[in-house]
Each structure stands twice: as C-alpha cells, then as structure tokens.
Write a structure and sequence with these properties.
Elements: E1 4-10, H1 15-25, E2 31-38, H2 44-52, E3 56-58, H3 67-80, E4 85-88, H4 97-102, E5 107-111, H5 123-130, E6 134-141, E7 151-158, H6 165-188, E8 193-195, E9 198-200
Parallel strand pairs: 1-2, 1-4, 2-3, 4-5
Antiparallel strand pairs: 5-6, 6-7, 8-9
Helix pairs in contact: 1-6, 5-6
Length: 208
C-alpha cells in the first residue's frame, strides 16, 4: 500500500502536528507529511516544518480583500500539495465550504471536548464553567458546521473540583496526541468506514 500524503493545517505551536510527523517517521503511520499550511507568519509550527524539511505555505486573512478570496487561496494551496488527508492541528479558522467539498471525508480535526458538547472556542473553559465531571477530546471528520462532522474517536478525562481551564487543557492535551495519531494511523491503513454520521474501524468489541 502506497503511503498517504498528509497535509497539516495549523495556526500555532503545532504540537499535534509534531506527534503526527513523528508517527510517520517511526513507521506507525503509513503516510508522509508533504506540507504545512499556516495562517500566521510567526507561528511556531513553521519552524517545525523547516526542521522536518517539509515545505510550508503562509496565507494570512489580512492579506486578502475578503474571506471568500482567502478561502479560494487556501483551496488552491491545498490542491497544490495533492493530499490524501488534511489534518487540522490547532488550526484556528473554520474551513471554507469549498475546501470541505473538494476533500470530502478527507479532512480531520481534533477538538478538546467530548462533542457534541462544548463546540467552538475555549472548550475547556466551557467544561469547567458547566461543572461537568468528565471531559476529553474528540477526533472527527470536518463537516460544514462548527465541530459537527462524523466522530471518529473520543477519549475521556476526569474533571476535578479544583480544575481551571489551564489544568484541564493540560490533562486533555496528554490524550490528544495519541488519539490523533491512532486516527491518522487508521485512516492511512484504509480502516475507517463512514455511513451517514457513523464512523467504524477504530474499535472492535472485546471477545466474550
């Protein structure tokens, strides 16, 4: 099976991107990171890409006349890398519908909450303020709504009485990297199957 071409979208430090790249290098993932698209010229993930020897494209919204022109440029940049899979790794923008339609069921994201609860920004803060006892992270395919695509896998973590947004975020982050890598591994092995909003292929039932 040929290696999948993985394109990373990121806005910041790129710690999930680093985990995915490491998994391609050590052979856990049958894929290669072929590029990084970033919307901030000073983002740390660009230094990571340079260290990996991977090309990157920087497209900042402020450089475009409007959001539509920005989304068109993002799509053209993504197409230029010919990806089999696009991984949103701390990408802080909502993907344009043109991108989602161009790569159906080939864009995945990780969100620091147990979807469908606590969509959008500051999910950890939302969880603490809501007083929930369990939170976690969700890896999902990207749909046209906010954090609404088919869920691939979820990992739960406890929420303690003295948790802050920061302490909960740290606990969730410890689970984000391995969860994301497991999903990318399954995708690149052609193990994921989608029917409607249901994704199978990540887990098998325990033997009786």
């Amino acid at each position: 099976m040929s290696k999948k071409r993985i394109l990373i979208f990121a806005s910041g430090r790129g710690s999930n991107a680093e985990a995915i790249h490491e998994a391609t290098i050590d052979g856990r993932v049958n894929g290669t990171v072929v590029g990084v698209i970033c919307d901030h010229a000073d983002a740390q993930v660009l230094k990571r890409a340079e260290r990996w020897g991977v090309p990157s494209t920087v497209l900042e919204l402020k450089s475009f006349e409007n959001k539509s022109a920005f989304n068109d440029a993002i799509l053209e940049a993504a197409k230029s890398y010919q990806p089999d899979l696009i991984c949103l790794a701390g990408y802080m923008r909502i993907c344009g519908e043109n991108l989602i339609h161009a790569f159906p069921n080939r864009i995945i994201n990780i969100h620091p909450a147990l979807l469908p609860s606590f969509r959008g920004l500051h999910a950890q803060r939302q969880a603490v303020e809501a007083g929930v006892k369990v939170s976690g992270c969700t890896v999902h395919f990207v749909g046209t709504g906010l954090d609404d695509g088919p869920i691939i896998t979820q990992v739960a973590v406890p929420v303690y009485d003295d948790d802050t947004e920061a302490t909960l975020a740290d606990r969730i982050l410890q689970q984000e990297h391995p969860a994301y890598v497991r999903v990318v591994t399954a995708f690149c092995a052609d193990q994921l199957h989608i029917e409607g909003h249901h994704v199978s292929g990540m887990h098998s039932r325990p033997e009786k």
